[in-house]
Amino acid sequence: MTAIPAAQPTGARRGRRAANRRSGRPEAVPRWERQALAAVLVVATVLYSWGIGHAAIHPFYGAAIRSMASSWRAFFFGGLDADGSISIDKLPGAFWPDAVSVWLFGPHTWAAALPQVVEGVLTVWLLYRIVRAWAGPFAALIAALTLTLTPVTVVLTRATIPDTALTLLLVAAAGALQKAVRTERLLPLITCGIWVGLAFQAKMLQAWLVLPVFAAVYQLAAPGRPLKRALRFLLGSAVALAVSCFWVLLAWATPAADRPYLDGTSHNSPFALVFGYNGLSRFSSDSTAFGAVAGTAASRTTGNTGWGMLINHTVGPQVAWFLPLAVLAAVLGFVWRAGQPRTDLLRTGFLLWGGWLAVHAVVFSASNGNHAYYTAVIAPALAALAGGGLALFRSEYEAGYEAGGRRRMALPAAIVLTAAWALVLDWPTRFVSWLLPITVMLTLCGAVGLWTRGPRTSPRMVHGALAAGIAATLVVPAGWAVSSLDPLYAGAATSPMTGPVGKAYNDVHHRRALRRVGLDQPSARDTALLDYLTTHRHGEKYLLATQAAYAAEPLLRAKSEPILVMGGFTGSTPFPTAQQFGTLVTTHQLRYALLTTQRPSTPVTTWVKSHCTRIRPTAYGRRTDGSFALYDCNPQG
Description:
Blueprint: H1 11-23, H2 31-49, H3 59-68, H4 72-77, H5 96-105, H6 109-135, H7 137-148, H8 151-156, H9 163-183, H10 186-203, H11 211-221, H12 226-253, H13 270-277, H14 316-319, H15 323-336, H16 345-366, H17 379-403, H18 410-426, H19 436-451, H20 459-483, E1 491-492, E2 495-496, H21 503-509, H22 524-535, E3 544-547, H23 549-558, E4 563-566, H24 578-586, E5 592-596, H25 603-611, E6 613-614, E7 628-632
Parallel strand pairs: 3-4, 3-5
Antiparallel strand pairs: 1-2, 5-7, 6-7
């Protein structure tokens, strides 16, 4: 076995390394490290891209991605259909790469999912570089491997959901901030603001959660006078605000007739979309706060909230495998470095990632509800703290062995704690119980080997014990992560999660059909409806009007056509009005409307029922209407 290099260099090497960190000069990467990093990135690429041709395309966002790929108006404003009559209920930034990929490669499922894979692998690589500059190569490789094998990371990179892009951009922002603190240069701080602003385009206000942490880290640890540090951070924050708001301001300044109606808003306001529907309404008892449209069961998840949400039986197995180790590392890293200068880089890193973890945990706990995949944004913090913590504990272990200090016990204790916690998280389902004996064996080998080290113990045996201990912490989460390669254990396309948890798994477990949607893959029923509408279309602008988005989604994923989505995602957005709908009909821009019993009646649906003729379902390839009914608003046309 090749010996693992020491976590911390000594003597002259330590001094040169510290000087390189402060100056920002890159260090030479040894061959063993390049090989190890390459292996981690290969594992990440395989896990994240496995089965990409059948990726979990989100039905709503998948429809928008295809439309955005076919129209500049839909692309820039996030139009749900090719004409961009109504937008999606998020900012479009996270879906721009997906739309570009579909535009380049065609309307294929793998093309829509490819950017998510790239974003996931880039996040692993970026985290490695950031942690290496902070805590060394040993910590960096552990962090990269930990992030790679975090179950929620694996399952999310095969889904068209904004959180993968959000995580990548915030990790890039953390790297820029770390460089600004280390080098005292202004440009990295400006770059940090740009990354935060771009993250805002991916998932709006959630991108700003890191700003208080970044402010504290820069003010407490950056070189220079306090006033200079404060002014510089204010400048970086102004850049973040400007980049964050550029789309909102452009949408606000664009006449309503020249852009889509903004879904989720009662008055077509981009500020209501960001600060109401996707902001205050998620924390307030008033679901219509700041001009938001009231959410529905489809648009507002409940549960997974409160102080125990990160460790419950659903969310815990997705992300919390290294939570105790991360907390221990953050606390001891800060306490043990208490006597160091204010600008101590190692302590700064623990403050950065520990603050990242704490802020997100508090906000998630206080919200009205969270999807399990929301926690993907804390996975880099957990991974960085795990890598940095094990590197610190290893350094203290080596120093404590020579001096007989008690800190040397932290390394084996951390390994035992992390492995034991993995057994606790897996216990409710016993999903990978066959891996538990392997975990116990590796933990014993690692902990006992480190605890019983003696004067005659060879370095090879110590390194072997350390490797066994690290492997023990990764075995069970890796089992959960790999399980998501089986669609049975990958959750729903609207809420991906790994393992035998969640509604999607329960549905399949009780022999209900597992639905997977893709681009350009219409069902026979949808094909028949599209054929009927196309055949009977005589120059109308819109192929169809649908009540709510879910009725239009399969048609938009199958064919890029203007479809008027009445009511948006929830069916409650006040667009179009009955008068606007009637005008479209009388001016021969619209003929057909598809209504559903799954959404409440609106003035528009009342207009359709009173002015249009219901079509027999057999005319468009269905035996019965089911929950849908097709109406012809111009039967003489």
